[in-house]
Amino acid sequence: MKIDGTHYRSLWWNSENHVLEIIDQRWLPHEFRVIPVATMQDFADAIYQMRVRGAPLIGATAAYGMALAMAEDASDANMDAAWTFLEKTRPTAINLRWALDRCRAALRPLPEADRAAAALTLAHEIADEDVEINRRIGENGLALIREIAARKPAGEPVRLLTHCNAGWLATVDWGTATSPMYHAQDAGIPLHVWVDETRPRNQGALTAWELGKHGVPHTYITDNAGGHLMQHGMVDMVITGTDRTTRRGDVCNKIGTYLKALAAHDNGVPFYVALPSPTIDWTVSDGVAEIPIEERDAQEVTHVQGLTDGGVLGTVQVAPTGTEGGNPAFDVTPNRLVTGLITERGVCDASEAGLSDLFPDFAKAAE
């Protein structure tokens, strides 16, 4: 996608300096910073500290981390050490483990002398595949938006609601939940997007920043406003992303997604999830019981980062001194509340049968 007319991915390989570069998302939407990721500790910090965030982007970043590990020491022992070191950074998003497993499976049979080059090539492939997956999700989601637009009076926008940031900043490019929006905007379909702020990290501000750069009309709202908008017929469809989806279609996403799904269900609003296939965890069935939920630093709740009226970026405390903060980062939306899953292979029911029909190869491999 573009920022002020210049195309960017959320990460890219600097072939001149032989280093991965990323957009450091801790400072967005107020400051645009690009930093190198040059050491294994840098990779771990980038993932854990949310310099990169979003399940697909975390997976791609981890693949480049494995490439660095192989460039430093291509032994089996170091490969396993790098897998363990990176895997523990974020426990919920399945793409992290998926990318690490894919790298280790591809590299283990190779002679040590060939592993460094092969690992870097594989990391490039994983990044490029993510871009194509998200582009195709956008095309399949566009068909749903077209159907809604066809039923509306001429010129009236399709009103979408999204939660967190499942945009190109959360992937390598295009995004998941935002990809249909960008495709619809480019196709000339009138849109308006309600953007949840998504406390405590306010990732909705990243979505608003993205949409603004692409010219998509949008409004930034509090997390608790979505139900009210649905009650008053102001939302035509909800689209969110996902960090892990079970084989039966339960969806684990940023905290607050479950409440949006409940409100959508109560008001007859279609609730769709944009789902890249690497985010399906075929080993898990019951999302509420089986998916580990990351508990992050309480300071993310008790403090907020932002710009002062004087234009200075800083952090302020919003909770009373001494108040304990709780910070579960994700929740699980049961499949019964999900209207459909928008994947790179098409749209399916949120069910084991629906996913298996679209991905019989993956389903069989997981048996």
Give an overview in words.
- This protein has 367 residues and is α/β, with parallel strands linked by helices.
- It folds into 2 domains: 127 residues, Up-down Bundle (Four Helix Bundle (Hemerythrin (Met), subunit A)), CATH 1.20.120; 214 residues, 3-Layer(aba) Sandwich (Rossmann fold).
- The protein is built from 13 helices and 18 strands.
- The strands form 5 sheets. It has a 7-stranded mixed beta sheet with strand order 8-7-6-9-12-17-18, with helices on both faces. A 4-stranded mixed beta sheet has the order 13-10-11-16, covered by helices on one side. A 3-stranded antiparallel beta sheet has the order 3-4-5.
- A hairpin with a 4-residue loop joins strand 3 and strand 4.
- The longest helix is centred in the middle third of the chain and has 40 residues.
Secondary-structure map:
Elements lengths: L1 E2 L2 E2 L3 E4 L4 E5 L10 E4 L2 H9 L6 H18 L3 H12 L6 H14 L4 H40 L6 E5 L15 H9 L4 E6 L7 H11 L3 E4 L4 H6 L5 E4 L3 E3 L4 E4 L2 H10 L4 E4 L5 E2 L5 H4 L8 H4 E5 L5 E5 L12 E4 L6 E4 L2 E3 L3 H7 L1 H6 L2
Parallel strand pairs: 6-7, 6-9, 7-8, 9-12, 10-13, 12-17
Antiparallel strand pairs: 1-2, 3-4, 4-5, 10-11, 11-16, 14-15, 17-18
